Structures are given as structure tokens and as C-alpha cells.
Amino acid sequence: AIRFEQKAGQADKSQWSGILVFAEQEQGEIHPVTLELIGEARRLGGPKGYEVNVALIGGEGTAERAEMLKRYGVDKIYAYEHEALGSFKADSYTKVMADCITRMQPSVVLVGATALGRSLAPRLATRFHTGLTADCTKLEMRENTDLVQIRPAFGGNVMAQILSTESRPQFATVRHKVMDAPERSAVATGEVVFCEVAEEMVSSAIKVRSVHAAERSCGIEEEDVLVVAGRGVKDEKGMELVKALADVLGGQVCCTRALVEEGYGDPTRQIGLSGRTVKPKLIVTCGVSGSIQFASGMKNSECIVAIDADPEALIFNIAHYCINDDLYEVIPPLVERLKQKKEVCSHAFSLS
Amino acid sequence: MKIIVCIKQVPDSSDVAIDPESGTLIRMGQNAKTNPYDLYAIETALRIRDEVGGTVTALTMGPPQAEEMMRDAYMMGVDETVVMSDRKFAGSDVLATSYTLSQGIKMLEGADLIICGKQTTDGDTAQIGPAIAEHLDIPHVAWVKSLEEVNDRFIAVVHQMSGHVQVSEMPYPCLITVDKDIFVPRLPSYKTKLSTREKEVRFLSFADLPDKNLSRFGIIGSPTQVDKMFPPEAAEGQVHIEGNSVEKANRLVALLSEAKIL
Ligand SMILES: Cc1cc2nc3c(=O)[nH]c(=O)nc-3n(C[C@H](O)[C@H](O)[C@H](O)COP(=O)(O)OP(=O)(O)OC[C@H]3O[C@@H](n4cnc5c(N)ncnc54)[C@H](O)[C@@H]3O)c2cc1C
Ligand SMILES: Cc1cc2nc3c(=O)[nH]c(=O)nc-3n(C[C@H](O)[C@H](O)[C@H](O)COP(=O)(O)OP(=O)(O)OC[C@H]3O[C@@H](n4cnc5c(N)ncnc54)[C@H](O)[C@@H]3O)c2cc1C
């Protein structure tokens, strides 16, 4: 393995310039966080006139997918394709990324804060004896190229500003849906650099036995998106609407106790004092009054959208987005609109 | 088989606030407890030991009070505990902490399997495990959600990726970080409490370590600095969405997209 005898406090900053984005692929697809990191890298590097380059590592088809990235305003796309890189192995991916970093000598390396990224980045930063800031929500670059990194800690109760002033490269991981992806441009400007994958890079102690799509857990506590049916949902038709909304949002249906009592709700999916406590990124309540017993199980959700016919409903005291309307009227156009939006997004990304 | 499990003492509540005057941390709870995610790591270690045979050593870097945490680890059933404590370790970031722990592991003559929790509830980076593996030049797998096969030659684990689960196999020595819910952590038992009362917590300091190069430890060995801390911005005001049903639906989608919730 390549070892760097650089210690904290020894980097000559002028030797390191530009920004390198690690482009995550999982089973042949580029993770959408990649585009967001490219957008952010361009914003950060703009004033310095920094190059923004991308490292794309993977199995068969990687070189082709590298072409796709050409239209997002990047300079070089380093493509490392080898059948042994088809699945993630922390040790061999580290060797490949180390090769790319040594080639480019970037000032900053951005990695998605995904399961893969958070396994790879710490290993890589350690190899270069440099700092890594986890889960950044905001980045700025100073005139002297120091990266100002802001991240939550203590479960989100505190924001910390972190700097690595003496060492290079500066590594940061960033979550999906935090930064802005650039528009896809009509002209392809990036250049694909095909990099040789040496046997030493793919030799790994890890043997991948299998990879399969994750089955969706039915534990509603783990879900990022929940749609709740309350007593305002009065029949099978209402349940279908709620289900359609959950499907298009990629979430799960749950319910209040009143709905369990009405016979439409599944008791294992009841939220509240005598049910489950949840904290999803998004929760949409439909025909839920927002009793204290219900709210105690969901009030810490990151974003609460409430749909209720009663303007005085308690749920509107804790909701971030309030829709005072009949759920039977508002859910159908909502589902329609979300479907349209999804199509536009997947279309934009599949075009190369 | 020799297993080392890395555990950290954290404030008993992450309910902290920032003093607006001084910008320093105000801790609500004065007490410390074992990082809750590390209980899953201990449980995993104990189960593997009970199945394959061997010993479990709990290792921490922290202030001397970490001894209390090690009493609890004994009560759960670990065989040996080691606290790495020295003023020279103060102010360590991930790089320095993981290096110090890797030095401790070398002092203990290594391990076949090293197990970490998925993250802590204070620093919250989830970076220590992979960084230790790199210092020791051994393979690792992070975010392990279940064990598929364990014997005295290798371990095969199921781990979560973004949209997939992967099953990976590694020979020893290697490191895993385990997700919550891999197993239900056992409660400390009164019987073990009695039988481990006399057990000693071993302390290691800087002077005991093989590497005497101070520039790798503590604040000097830490490339990252916490420059300042501040409270998160308050949630934005409530939005009442008006219009007819279709307008409301469209407006909501636009607002959620803008806020990057969709
Ligand atoms: C000890 C105890 C424990 C409890 N634990 C729980 C618990 O864990 N979980 C729980 O949920 N409850 C619990 N409850 C019950 C709780 O007090 C409420 O009765 C319950 O949450 C009400 O559910 P709801 O909001 O679905 O129904 P309701 O309060 O009847 O509200 C229905 C809402 O739907 C609206 N609505 C009606 N028609 C429409 C329409 N067409 N379009 C839009 N909106 C419409 C109404 O305006 C109303 O706001 C508990 C109670 C006790 C005493
Ligand atoms: C607000 C704040 C933000 C910070 N941000 C960063 C940052 O972005 N980058 C950075 O490099 N440092 C950062 N630090 C410093 C970092 O938290 C500490 O250096 C700490 O030693 C390591 O990380 P952690 O708590 O994040 O552990 P994690 O990496 O989340 O812990 C994972 C696992 O490693 C093991 N482990 C962790 N610490 C120990 C220990 N001391 N002894 C034994 N086992 C252990 C446990 O098994 C644990 O479950 C930050 C500190 C604060 C207070």
C-alpha cells in the first residue's frame, strides 16, 4: 500500500489545488449525491479558478457512465474500470482513490455521506494523514484555500465549524439532498481520463459473497418518509389515496389509534403514546386532529405536513406546512404532481 | 479467538446547548454513560466469543472516569478492560484518536477481530472504526447489520449499502462496525457483578506505547480543529398553503422541493 509520511501540520498548501469529487456507483448506477457534490465543488472552486475533477470507480460499464458526467461542468473524469471493482471493498477502493489523489493532488476531496462513502472516506483520509469532517451541511472556501466546514454533532443539537488549516487534502463527507446539483448542460465539456487499474489495486482481503436489493423493513421507525391516515380517512377509497401518496413519496403508511379502532389501521403501524415513536425526514398527516397522545410519537419529525379539514385542528400547531382542505380533494392532485416531478428527474439523469 | 471491542464514554444526554456568550458547550446531564451504540458492539463480541471461543477485551481512550464504564462492561461479561488515559491524548480528533487506539491494540498484541459501534452520540462522525483498520493495515466492513457465518478462520457479515445489502467475508485480523439492532444488548447481571468485582481495569498511558512520537497524538496530532460551535438555526416559520386544492398540491410540491425534502 502507498504510505504517506506527511504529518498533521506539514502540508505545503500550494502543492495541492483543485477539488476531487468521489462519484459513488452502486450496482451500475451513479448515486445522485454525486451531482450535488459536483455542483458544490464548482461553487467552492469558482473564485479560485479551481479544476473540478471526478473519480469514478467500478466494474463493467464504468467508462460509459463516465461519459454521462461530462455535461455537468467538470474538467476531468478519472475512470477506473475493472471487473473486480464491481462491488465495494473498502481496502481496494482505498487503493484506487489513493492513486487518483496522488495523480491530481487536490486541495479538497468531497465524498457522499452514504454507507459506502462513510466507510471509504475515513480510511482514505487516514492514509493521507489528514483531516476528515463528517456529514457537512455547509462548506465555504477561504482565500487561503482552507475549507470552512459546518456540521451537526450531538444528534443535531449543536453545529460545529471545523477547519483543517495545516494539512492537505481536506476531506469532507456531505449527505444526499444537502447541496444543489448543477443543470445538465447541452454541451459535453469534461474529458474522460481512462486510468489503468493495477493488479495490486484490486487485490483485496474481502470476498463479496452476494449483493441484493434491500428488502423494505416494515418497522416504521426506520423509514425516512411516513404518511399517516387519521379518522378523516373514512373508507377504503381514502386508504387507497393515502397509500398512493406513500408510494409516490417512497414511504410507508401508518395510522392513528382512532383509525385502528375504525378497523382500517394496522396496530403495528400506530404512531403515538401507545404506539410507535417516529422521527422521519418527512411525515404527512391526512385527517389527523393532532391529539397530544398522537403528537408525542411524531413531533420530532424533521418536516411535518398536515392535511386537515378543520382549521382549528391541533395538528396545525406543530406542522411546518399546513393544508386546510378535504383530503379527498387534495391528495389526488398531489399524487399527480409528485409523479410528474419524478418523471422529470429520472429523465434528466438517464440522458447522457 | 481474541476480540477487542472499542467503546467510548459519552454524556448521558445529547441534550446540550451552546452558551451564546462564550460559545462553549453547556451539558444538561452531568453524568457519563457508555455510548449506546457500543452496547451492540459488546453484545456482538460476547456472542462470537461464546460461539467460537476466546476472549473479549474492551478498550477505550478517555479520561480516568472511563473506569466506571469498564465496570459495566465487566458486568455484561467481557474478560478484560483497558483504559488509555493521558493528558497527551487530550484534544484528539478522529485521526489522533484512531491512531492512539491502534497503538493500544498493538500493545495488547493485536486481535483477530476488532469491533466498533456504528457511531457515538457526541462527536457523531462514525469514522473511528475504518480509521483504526487503516492504521493497522487490516480490512474492514462498516454498518454490519447481521452476521452470516463466523468461525476461527473468517467472518462473513451482512452490511447495508445505499439501496442494497451486501454480504462480505474477511479473514482475520479484521475490523467491523456494527449497526444498532444487530443483537439486543444484554443487561448487566448481578451474578457477573459479584464475580467480576475484583477484576482490574488496566490503564495505559503515553509512556507505555510503542510510538513515542508526540506529533501523532492529542491536539498536535489532530489535523482538524473545532473552530467554534453554535446552536442550529431555528426551524423556519410555519407555512400556510392557500388556494384551491390543485394549487395547494402544486405549491406544496414546489416548497418541499425547494427545501430539498423531496
Ligand atoms: C392513554 C391514551 C393513549 C393514547 N394513545 C394514542 C396513540 O398512541 N396514538 C393515537 O393516535 N392516539 C392515541 N390516543 C387517542 C387520542 O387521544 C385521539 O383520540 C386520537 O389520536 C385521534 O385520532 P385521529 O386524529 O385520527 O381522529 P380525530 O381526533 O377524530 O381527528 C380526525 C380529524 O380528521 C379531520 N377530517 C375529517 N374529515 C376530513 C376530510 N375529509 N379531510 C380532511 N380532514 C378530515 C377532522 O377535522 C379531524 O381533525 C390515546 C388516548 C389515550 C387516552
Ligand atoms: C462537535 C464536534 C464535532 C466534531 N467533528 C469532527 C470531525 O468532523 N472530524 C474529526 O476528525 N473529529 C471531529 N470531532 C472530534 C471527534 O469527535 C473525536 O475526536 C472523537 O475522538 C472521535 O470520534 P467520534 O466521537 O465521532 O466517534 P465515532 O467515529 O462516531 O465512533 C465510532 C465508534 O468508534 C469507537 N470509538 C470512538 N471513540 C472511541 C474512544 N475514544 N475509545 C474507544 N473507542 C472509540 C466506538 O466503538 C464508536 O462506536 C468532533 C468533536 C466535536 C465535539
Question: How do the strands and helices of this protein lay out in sequence?
Answer:
The complex is a heterodimer of chains A (352) and B (262).
Chain A: E1 19-23, E2 25-26, E3 29-30, H1 33-45, E4 52-58, H2 62-68, E5 76-81, H3 90-104, E6 108-112, H4 115-127, E7 132-136, E8 138-141, E9 147-153, E10 158-163, E11 170-174, E12 191-194, H5 199-202, E13 207-213, E14 225-229, H6 236-249, E15 252-255, H7 257-262, E16 282-286, H8 292-295, E17 304-308, H9 315-318, E18 321-324, H10 327-350
Parallel strand pairs in A: 1-4, 1-6, 4-5, 5-12, 6-11, 7-11, 14-15, 14-16, 16-17, 17-18
Antiparallel strand pairs in A: 2-3, 8-9, 9-10
Helix pairs in contact in A: 3-4, 6-10
Chain B: E1 2-6, E2 9-11, E3 16-18, E4 25-27, E5 32-34, H1 36-52, E6 55-61, H2 66-76, E7 80-84, H3 94-107, E8 113-117, H4 128-136, E9 140-150, E10 154-160, E11 164-171, E12 174-178, H5 190-196, E13 201-204, E14 225-230, E15 239-240, H6 245-258
One flavin-adenine dinucleotide sits between chains B (6-8, 35, 37-38, 41, 59-62, 92-94, 97, 101, 116-117, 119-120, 122-129, 224, 226, 229) and A (131-134, 151, 153, 158, 160, 162).
